[in-house]
Amino acid sequence: MLYWLYGDSVVRMLTVQYRMHSAIMNWTSKEMYQGRLTAHSSVEGHLLKDLPGVTCVEETSTPLLLIDTAGCGLSEMEVTDEQSKGNQGEVDIVELHIKALTGAGVKAKDIAVIAPYNLQVHLLRQKLSARHPELEIKSVDGFQGREKEAVVLSLVRSNRKGGVGFLAEDRRINVAVTRARRHVAIVCDTQTVQSHAFLKSLINHMTEFGEVRTAFEYIQDIVPQNYTRDHKDTKASASASSSTSTKQKVKDQPPSRAKQQQKKSTGSSSNETAAGTEKHTTSCMTALTEEEQKKNRCAEIRAQVESFLKDLSQKELQFPSSFNSHDRLLVHQIAEELGLVHESKGEGKDRCIMVARPLVSTPAERPTQEEEEETIPDPQREPLCQPPSDLKSLHLERMKREQQKREEHAQQKQQQKCIPPAPAQSSKKPKPAKEKNRMKAGACGIAAAAAPDDDFDTLINAVIKAERVCSFVRCKASLLTLGQLCLFCNRQYCLSHHIPEVHGCGDKAKSHARMRISKEGVLYAGSGKKDKSMDPNKKAYLQRKLDSKLKDMSSQRKPKNKENDS
Questions:
Q1: Which domains does the chain have, with CATH numbers?
Q2: For residue 393, what are the contacts with CB-CB under 8 A and spacing of at least 6?
Q3: Closest CA to 253 of 213, 217, 298, 216
Q4: Between β-strands 64-68 and 77-78, what pairing exists: parallel, antiparallel or unpaired?
Q5: Stronger pLDDT, 230 or 498, i.e. the higher one
Q6: pTM for this structure?
Q7: What is residue 69's three-state secondary structure?
Q8: N or C: which end of the chain has fewer CB within 10 A?
Q9: Phi, psi of 360 (to 5 degrees)
Q10: Cβ proximity of 198 and 169 under 8 Å
């Protein structure tokens, strides 16, 4: 009533807060309070490592941590019976982060896990409550008005449409983030979340002032959904990951360059003051643009990986633990592009990345009699073991052998033109030729036909261009909108040629059907015994519903009146 009578003259905003680290506070101050909030000196720079009994590791030394799941195939799931949603991949990542925090000495009672959906809260409790009984796992509304030293926030949503649901309610997200005192970790798909402006501002703040990691660093056996075939998603995820990591790179890389510049400046001018050296280093750092720094660092790491590929005597390449999070992200991306095995080892400051060659198993070619005589091993002349070769050299060798066979086949055809072939042979020979020519050259064929001096980027572009069109010969239908992947030849076809019997995989489909009939007893879809096992997502939903029902029944139960002893 007073506000309506006198307006803002009777209202005063409390601008000093005594809870959050300044890095956490600055985002909510800018987005919700017009930049008027300030942090008290007692909480302005406090971190988890300042707590008693907590060791100094990467997780306890940063107030903001963003774990990006974009392009990692960790899509959301939903139960058809209700609107709630969950994300099992984010549950696994949250478990690993909680393990890192508790391993560093942070008590479970000082950590809160917040999720916006009830189904995700239930999945998190199933995963973590038994191991950490004191860990609080609640929804955003359930944790309102509370505070913890560390907060882990799982945003759940990960879809191609960019739908965020009621994550678009700005006040709820503000409440969830501001529950933390010293540390906030957000697990989300930045490609999906950035479709909303308020959430995009949160992601930009985290990438600029915090640490950014990819989900590949936590779960090594992630197989991205359609990683090599869904071109729109891979490009968008690559651009999203690069955009989220450029700012982190600019933040992380200059200190090392600054130290080099400081050494040069102190050697040349020893009489300069500390303030003068800092100004000189900052001017040197601003000389390089963000794009140049990005290209230089990426080129350095790529050169190390390519030199490792050329050196066949080296089995694996291990990068030092001094790499920051953005450098590790670059190593993961480069190794994924080159088809190498990449794995993170160690925890905290000892974390490093190992890159190794993949185990290549190619089908054996049928050699001719001359080749068989040449390839017979002689134990007195040479050993049986041979040094491993890379994938491209194997393709080049295969291409040479195939080219020789084609030339021999062409010479045989020219010789047969002079001699009329038998009618039975002429009717049977063209059929396998048609079977072979039903498929276009795929990724392996393009790599095999490439010369040793060809650029790797041009090969990648050629493969992407080839996979955008139906793999059936003489078919130019585009697959950007519709297309199906064959399970037998692992190629995409249009809706007119996706049937295995049409594009040449009929024999494989028949053998697969026979195996399924003999193994499962299923003749066609719907026949055989019905699978009565319950879906785990539905089971989690029903369990949560049962718990709420039991809770309501226990609250409605009336206590028995105690009879007075006579």
A1: 2-227 (3.40.50.300), 255-263+286-356 (3.30.1370.50)
A2: none
A3: 298
A4: unpaired
A5: 498
A6: 0.45
A7: coil
A8: C
A9: -95, 125
A10: no
